[in-house]
Amino acid sequence: MTDRVDALVPFSPDRPKTRLSDTLSPAERRDFADAMLTDVLAALEGAGFAPRVLTTEPTGRDVPETVDDRPLTEAVNAALDAHDPGPESPLAVVMADLALATPRALARLRGPHGGDGSTAAADSSDPAGDSSDPAGDSSDPADVAIAPGRGGGTNALLVRHPEFRVDYHGASSLDHLRAARDLGATVHELDSRRLATDIDEREDLAEVLISGDGAARDWLVEAGFRLETGDGRVTVERNGDG
Amino acid sequence: MTDRVDALVPFSPDRPKTRLSDTLSPAERRDFADAMLTDVLAALEGAGFAPRVLTTEPTGRDVPETVDDRPLTEAVNAALDAHDPGPESPLAVVMADLALATPRALARLRGPHGGDGSTAAADSSDPAGDSSDPAGDSSDPADVAIAPGRGGGTNALLVRHPEFRVDYHGASSLDHLRAARDLGATVHELDSRRLATDIDEREDLAEVLISGDGAARDWLVEAGFRLETGDGRVTVERNGDG
Q: GO annotations under biological process (chains A, B) (predicted)?
């Protein structure tokens, strides 16, 4: 599999990262969201994807883009309609705020999905035991691969089945896995910390400082953020805070 | 590699999960911590490990245990001294609150660590590029494999190098990776959401309800917890709350 796989990256320049409004000004949130998008696009390129930004308004970036101002679910489903994904023409959908994504993590999304480097028999994607994914030893990539996020969201997705459609909401990854199985698709739940870590809230910024290595981390450091280790989880402080 | 690999599971029955004291009573915290330990031990068994509880006081469980009431770092280092880990006698250290751990996720800790199912060249464990881990195509397991947690902690560890010692604290995974490299050890950063998710605070309980499938999830459901989807991240509510 040497062909590049198309990857959509949904992006909303008009309302970036509202849950960071306690921490960053609107202009800062725009800049930071932009830096994360830069990192995600670079990681996708490094993993052999051909990224395209699916944006609510033109970004002015030197990267292919589709402008669609509808809500996320509708815009992504329209793109799936247009792409008509299949085994030879997969389509990935990767969120723009995965600031910890690396080429290695994203390459796992492409598959094969048989073992994830593991020799264990149990299929972690399928607690209920009703998976259509032959456990463990398949060398074929799954029809639908999903990397769940913290809180159960669908942070990254790779679709090889023509009928699969998305419905983004809170804990959508469970519903997406179920919907894929209902179509008779083989599914894979990709177990990746880096793809599970979407950056939405102040506490998430610590993850970028700890594990990031791109434009988003540089932006935070430049903006005066640093790690703070207290009694509980590591948090961030900003120069001038408190 | 069919031999069982020894795995230490540090556990403190005397002061369980204090950061959940806003949510659970002391007796409940003890029961919940116990349920998580049950899940971690079962997942380790399923992944071919021979688990041993490293506990501050006897647990009364039907599982091998070492009682050591010293702080975590000292107790684990004493166990490393005693075990003298090497390529043929590795020792794993896996936290007792990884309620999302599966046999598949833990088997990845054993290695091989060459690609994690990936064909990408970049080594995500090594943003700075100074890794002693030959990038990507090694089929040997690393001398030290580390699964970082949220907040940068060291949630799971596999040691094959006799001189490696631990120093647990906030963002210890970065220091552990550095210390291993300083010894000339090959290192691997294991990218796993399931091993990254230690259960410390109320918001973490949502992860157990979403992605758990063992005793800890059953305990939470039995205790009346359910998922609540609001505007932001998915959280938990408890029957009788509010």
A: F420-0 metabolic process
